[in-house]
Write a structure and sequence with these properties.
434 Repressor (Amino-terminal Domain), Rossmann fold, two-stranded antiparallel ribbon, globular, NB-ARC
C-alpha cells in the first residue's frame, strides 16, 4: 500500500488543488501540508486526517485508505524513562494546571511547544515537571523521556552530544548509528521525532545553548525544561516561574 505522503499528494493533485489551497481548505498551515507530503511527518493526529479528507472531498473508502496509511506500525517502540511521581502533591494547583494545559494543547499548534519551569534550587521544579509529565502520559502515545542535564548537580553538566546520544538511544537508535557530531545527531533526532508525539523532560538545564540541539523541529512532540534561569534565549518558550511548592507523602 502507498504511504501517507504519496496518497496525500495523489489525492491533492486529483482534486486539482495546490498545497496552498489544500492548507486553506483544511485550516492547516502550508508547512504542515508540505511536511506530510514529503514524508517528514508520517503519523498526524486523526483530526488532521479528518480535515484533509473533508478538504479533498474524499469518499468514505478513500478517507479510510488515507487513515490506514497513517497508522503507526505495531513494532515501533514507546519510550518511558520518567522518575517516580510523588504519592501526593498539593499546592500551586493553578500553575500545574496552566503547565499541563500548555503541553496538552500542543497538537493544536504547528512546531515545537517548549515550557520552561524556572526558579532557585530546592523549590521543587523537578517535582512539578515530573508530576506534569505523569499526568499527561496518555496524551503522548509515543512516550516520555527524562534527561537530567546536571547543571547544578555536581560534576560536569551534560554536554549537547552526550545528551543527544542518550535521547537517541532511548528512542531505539543503535549506538553504532548515532552520529559523532552535534549537528548531525541533532538532525537525526529531529527526523526521528517528526512523526511522533513525545514528551521530552530536560531537567536542570544550564543554558539555552545546552538544550537547543535537543529540540524537535516539527510535529507534535513537546519539551518541558527546568532551570535556575528563565532561558529567555529560547524563542517562543512559555515561562513558568516557580517559587515554592507543598507536598505530602503517606
Amino acid at each position: 500500500m502507498a504511504g501517507l505522503a504519496e496518497l496525500l499528494r495523489e489525492f491533492r493533485v486529483a482534486a486539482g488543488l495546490t498545497q496552498e489551497q489544500l492548507a486553506e481548505r483544511s485550516e492547516l498551515s502550508v508547512g504542515a501540508v508540505a511536511t506530510l507530503e514529503t514524508g517528514r511527518r508520517r503519523f498526524p493526529r486523526p483530526a488532521t486526517l479528518d480535515a484533509l479528507a473533508e478538504a479533498l472531498g474524499l469518499s468514505t473508502t478513500e478517507a479510510g485508505v488515507l487513515r490506514e496509511a497513517a497508522v503507526r506500525p505495531s513494532g515501533e517502540s514507546r519510550s518511558e524513562s520518567l522518575p517516580a511521581d510523588l504519592e501526593d502533591f498539593v499546592g500551586r494547583a493553578d500553575t500545574l494546571a496552566q503547565l499541563t494545559g500548555v503541553l496538552s494543547g500542543a497538537g493544536r499548534q504547528f512546531g515545537t511547544v517548549i515550557a520552561v519551569v524556572s526558579g532557585m534550587g530546592g523549590v521543587g521544579k523537578t517535582a512539578l515537571a515530573v508530576r506534569a509529565a505523569h499526568s499527561l502520559a496518555a496524551a503522548f502515545p509515543d512516550g516520555q523521556i527524562y534527561l537530567n542535564l546536571r547543571a547544578h548537580s555536581g560534576g560536569e553538566p551534560v554536554d549537547p552530544l552526550e545528551a543527544l546520544t542518550r535521547v537517541l538511544r532511548a528512542l531505539g537508535t543503535p549506538a553504532a548509528r548515532i552520529p559523532a557530531d552535534v549537528s548531525t545527531a541533532s538532525a537525526r533526532l529531529r527526523s526521528l521525532v517528526a512523526d511522533r508525539k513525545l514528551l521530552l523532560v530536560l531537567d536542570d538545564a544550564r543554558s539555552a545553548e545546552q538544550i537547543q540541539p535537543l529540540l524537535p523541529g516539527v510535529g507534535e512532540s513537546v519539551v518541558l525544561v527546568t532551570s535556575r534561569t528563565r532561558l529567555l534565549a529560547l524563542a517562543g518558550a512559555r515561562q513558568f516561574p516557580w517559587t515554592s511548592w507543598t507536598s505530602r507523602t503517606h
